[in-house]
Amino acid sequence: MSMLPVDKAEIYYETHGKGYPLILIAGLSCDLNLWLRIQETLTKHFQLILFDNRGVGRTHYQGPFNIDTMANDVLALMNHLKIERAFVLGHSMGGAILQSLAARHPERLAKMIISHSLIQFKPKARLALAHNLKLNEQNAPIKDQVEAKAPWIFSNAFLSKAENIESIIQLNEGAAYPQSTQGYKDQIAALLEFNSFEWFQSIKVPALVLAGIEDILAPASENKILADGLHAQFHLMSGAHIPLFEEPEAYAELVRDFLS
Q1: 0.85 exceeded by the pTM?
Q2: CATH number for the 2-259 domain, one of 3.30.590.20, 3.40.50.1820, 3.60.150.10, 3.40.50.2300?
Q3: Would you tell me which of 39, 93, 114, 154 could form a disulfide with 158, CB atoms 3.0–4.6 Å apart?
């Protein structure tokens, strides 16, 4: 558990396990606890490097930032830990960060997994984020914020069980390091300006792209375009945007099998 000073920020990070390094990049509003349900499985095979992006968790930062800034943070962390090459997995916004890193520093990546991510957010997703930000700025109860987000990120099967929704509400209400409104706003701003359409095809790193059949925020069709442009393997999972909650065992198996 350590802090790494970088440009206008201090990045909180942790390392777990031994083996070839696997860096995990979380998505919008998620700190490193996003990976808890697969962490134990993956530490049996890799050295995991987990960290909090700017705008969330225990990472401190000043001023606005963009996706390239966050990709630079990953590179700085690799340099600090003396990691010459690594496997890297980016989920959702983390997949955008990974694209930026891979486009500019492909020599540092042995393999990469882009999970439930995007080339550019579509109007429907933008409207959902704008609504969620408005609830956050109005300091709406966490229960209301979670219930507004849930249809966008979870599958029908997951939401059909009331205990699943309640567990997500409790998880957010009990967060040790809740995201600030400013952090959420700054992460959304960085994500909404991201557009890799003109350059993602130039990335030359062995890749796997994962998508969810019910994913509304990052549609499977866009992830298939991403996979085709990268000449990557493509796997369509059941479920929606957060397989780490819905199918952690299957998700960990896909990661392990591709990287082994």
Answers
A1: yes
A2: 3.40.50.1820
A3: 154
